[in-house]
């Protein structure tokens, strides 16, 4: 068996029950137990296993270990590989985590650290930057996203001790198609009644500030007050959602939804067929959100893809084509970008304003793109 994957890799989702989970994911993945509260479907990350083909049953981590350059590409390796001690070979992980989240109830109020804090304080390689793309939202759905006003860390500790945290948090109404970027340090929570596509760094480092007084197995879930106060971004957001940059290309409408140094995300609406390419710089992940179609590669080799399924296109694969079998065929795509060459320069060449590009990286100075564009 070849060490190198020569085709897209399809994975079995890892379905995880959550206290706040709902029934949507159980229906999507045809789970027999209709009473399960499945909150998360982990679609692409190190531990998910291949479904079908010569590599069936292998976890993504093993495929990356065998051929990090071929799977991850140069940018993917820079994001996912770290030197190991004593001069041994680098340890490589798949650097992204792709999920679907079904929030029947509100999630805890939480915050994630950045890479530096994760390494220094948790001994983990990655912090957590994440973006939400809202797929479904019931009337009145909202999120928590940052604070209403600037405060000091001492004031935040006092607000928490006095039980006034909820009053200090900013709530934002959301609807299908909204995009929310949680840069490290953002205090945030999904509200009830939403189905969300989440793209993030490969990290599950989560510090809880507040959990609505819920009990799990008869006991409150752990809170992480000290760590949360240390890493929280205390500056209020001027804008809470990203305005996607929408481009029409042959066979596809492409909406750029977010771009940071960690990942770029797009929503592709395939009209007929769309030619795509990996150049060796980064893998592509594809998650079908609506409809069905196929990915065609090599000498006409075809891999079907339906809503809820995900693929990794190895960085070394080269040309491939996405073909719609039903319309609309909507796919979320993610990769590790070179922000200048993959995002800023091509969008500027298409006539997109610098401000519209900068806000793809988040609000104000939180945006990697804004800092990059300011130096050019």
Plain-language structure description:
This protein has 376 residues and is of the alpha+beta class. It folds into 2 domains: 9-231, Jelly Rolls (Sandwich); 245-374, Jelly Rolls, CATH 2.60.120. It has 10 helices and 26 strands. The protein has helices spanning 24-28, 60-66, 68-80, 115-122, 153-161, 165-168, 225-231, 339-349, 354-358, 368-374, and strands at 9-10, 14-22, 38-44, 81-82, 91-92, 96-103, 109-111, 130-137, 142-147, 169-173, 179-182, 188-190, 194-201, 207-210, 215-216, 219-220, 245-249, 252-259, 264-270, 273-277, 284-290, 292-297, 301-306, 310-313, 319-324, 329-335. Strands 1-24-21-26-19-18-17 form a 7-stranded antiparallel β-sheet, with no helix packed on it. The chain has a 6-stranded antiparallel β-sheet with strand order 2-3-6-13-8-11. α2 packs across α3. The longest helix is centred in the first third of the chain and has 13 residues, at 68-80. The chain is globular, with a radius of gyration of 20 Å. The mean pLDDT is 95.
């Amino acid at each position: 068996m070849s060490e190198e994957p020569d085709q897209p890799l399809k994975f079995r989702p890892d379905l995880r029950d959550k206290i706040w989970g709902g029934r949507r994911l159980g229906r999507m993945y045809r789970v027999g137990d209709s009473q399960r509260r499945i909150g998360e479907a982990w679609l692409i990350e190190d531990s998910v296993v291949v479904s079908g083909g010569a590599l069936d049953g292998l976890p993504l981590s093993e495929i990356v270990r065998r051929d990090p350059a071929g799977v991850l590409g140069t940018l993917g390796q820079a994001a996912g590989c770290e030197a190991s001690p004593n001069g041994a070979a680098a340890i490589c992980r798949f650097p992204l985590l792709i999920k679907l989240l079904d929030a029947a109830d509100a999630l805890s109020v939480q915050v994630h650290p950045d890479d530096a804090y994760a390494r220094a304080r948790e001994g983990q390689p990655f912090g957590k930057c994440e973006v939400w793309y809202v797929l479904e939202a019931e009337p009145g759905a909202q999120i928590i996203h940052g604070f209403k006003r600037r405060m000091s860390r001492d004031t935040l500790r006092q607000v928490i001790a006095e039980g006034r945290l909820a009053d200090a948090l900013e709530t934002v109404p959301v609807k299908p198609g909204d995009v929310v970027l949680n840069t490290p340090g953002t205090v945030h929570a999904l509200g009830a009644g939403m189905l969300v596509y989440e793209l993030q760094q490969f990290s599950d480092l989560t510090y809880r500030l507040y959990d609505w007084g819920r009990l799990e197995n008869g006991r409150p879930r752990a809170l992480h007050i000290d760590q949360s106060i240390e890493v929280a971004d205390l500056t209020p957001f001027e804008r809470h959602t990203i305005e996607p940059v929408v481009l029409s290309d042959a066979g596809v409408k492409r909406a750029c939804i977010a771009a940071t140094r960690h990942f770029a995300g797009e929503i592709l609406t395939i009209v007929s067929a769309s030619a795509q390419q990996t150049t060796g710089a980064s893998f592509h992940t594809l998650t079908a959100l609506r409809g069905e179609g196929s990915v065609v590669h090599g000498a006409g080799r075809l891999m079907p893809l339906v809503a809820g399924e995900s693929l990794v296109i190895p960085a070394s694969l080269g040309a491939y084509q996405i073909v719609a079998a039903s319309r609309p065929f909507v796919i979320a795509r993610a990769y590790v970008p070179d922000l200048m060459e993959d995002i800023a320069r091509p969008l500027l060449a298409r006539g997109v304003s610098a401000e519209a590009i900068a806000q793809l990286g988040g609000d104000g100075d939180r945006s990697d793109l804004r800092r990059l564009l300011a130096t050019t």
